[in-house]
Amino acid sequence: MIKAGIIGSTGYAGQEIVRLLLGHEDVEIKWYGSQSYINKKYYQVFGNVFQLIENICEADDIIKLADEVDVIFMATPQGFCASVITEEILSKVKVIDLSADFRIKDVATYEEWYEIKHKSSRFIEEAVYGLCEINRKAIKDARLVANPGCYPTCSFLSIYPLAKEGVIDMNTLIIDAKSGTSGAGRGAKINNLYCEVNENIKAYGVANHRHTPEIEEQLSYVSNSPVILNFTPHLVPMNRGILVTAYASLNKVYSYEEIKAIYNKYYNEEYFVRVLDQDVTPETRWVEGSNFVDVNFKIDKRTGRIIMMGAMDNLVKGAAGQAVQNMNLMFGFEESKGLKQVPMFP
After folding, report:
1. Whole-number pLDDT of residue 203
2. I want to staple 7 with a disulfide (CB 3.0 to 4.6 A). Which of 33, 63, 179, 263 is the partner?
3. Above 80 in pLDDT, residue 340?
4. Residue 141, in any domain of the structure
5. Cα 36 to Cα 292: distance, rounded to the nearest angstrom
6. What is the pLDDT of residue 29?
7. Is there a contact between 221 and 281 (Cβ–Cβ < 8 Å)?
8. What residue numbers bound the domain in which 301 lies?
């Protein structure tokens, strides 16, 4: 039994970590951190855990927390983890950071896109990018894991096999993505009010969304060449879910069977990545509440391009589920432990 603490437990990603860990038989949650609800019972914030959790919300005292638990989940805004992490803390406890603080290896790139000064750049090189399907071995030995962003996770897993095999011209890559409103967090914002979001869809962060350099960096690693791409996210009126549609030119003519064999090569042994049957397009409703990512592709023979598609729950595989998956690897548990929930429908 390991002990876990969650800083930022009353945000959407934080409460999703709580939900998942309550079903994990090898983990006890010892600390529910929340600056907004100190001394308030956790179930008074989230009524779904009434009679399941009696703990109160505590301050974000990471120094004290490091002496009480084995792993800390940092479900906090950009800049917070970097401002509090120290060698002393990492010598005592493993840390899984759900912010972007340690995802991008180039400090200047991070500071340019996030418009904040990085306060713990000395740990960037050590931090492991926590995409389990790619960095499984390194995650197992890590003290500090940078949990990937939601858009980058879905985008990367949709494109990865073809980028790795050199099947597509990376210079032609365009990613179109859509997300439910929970991706913007639980804070009160006018743009996320019901009347602003309902019956509407809009692009945002056009040509400057902060997840762009993360996607570019990870695709550059696997394709062995610098990647610069267009990434355009859209906000849609639903609670959860991400749908990615990516386009690129093929380097030569391929059959359906050849492309499918490439996806199978990389994902046949991956429990959480499901390659769909021919002509079945990924849908957010079939992954909601789960750690699964559904991917597929369509060859457009007329244009010589391929459309790569992916769908996942932004709060699970895009945040909390992936964090628990990382925790499982770091502590030697079965990777899927506590994460085998069947997607919810309707």
Report:
1. 97
2. 33
3. yes
4. no
5. 31
6. 98
7. no
8. 151-314
Q: In Å, how far from its chain's centre is CA 299?
A: 27
Percent of the chain with pLDDT over 90: 96
Catalytic residue among 57, 81, 132, 150: 150
Q: Which of 110, 122, 95 is nearest to 8 (CA)?
A: 95
Indicate the pTM of the whole model.
0.96
Sheet strand arrangement including 293-300? 202-203, 230-235, 174-179, 242-249, 305-312, 293-300, 273-275
One domain for residues 116 and 195:
no
pLDDT exceeds 80 at position 188: no
CA distance 15 to 10: 6
- Contact yes or no for 66/94 (Cβ under 8 A): no
Please check whether residue 182 lies inside any domain of the structure.
Answer: yes
Tell me if residue 195 is catalytic.
no
In whole angstroms, give the CA distance from residue 341 to residue 181: 22
- Determine the Cα–Cα distance for residues 344 and 292; give it in Å rounded to an integer: 11
The CATH number linked to 161 is 3.30.360.10
Q: Is residue 339 within 8 Å of 324, Cβ to Cβ? A: yes
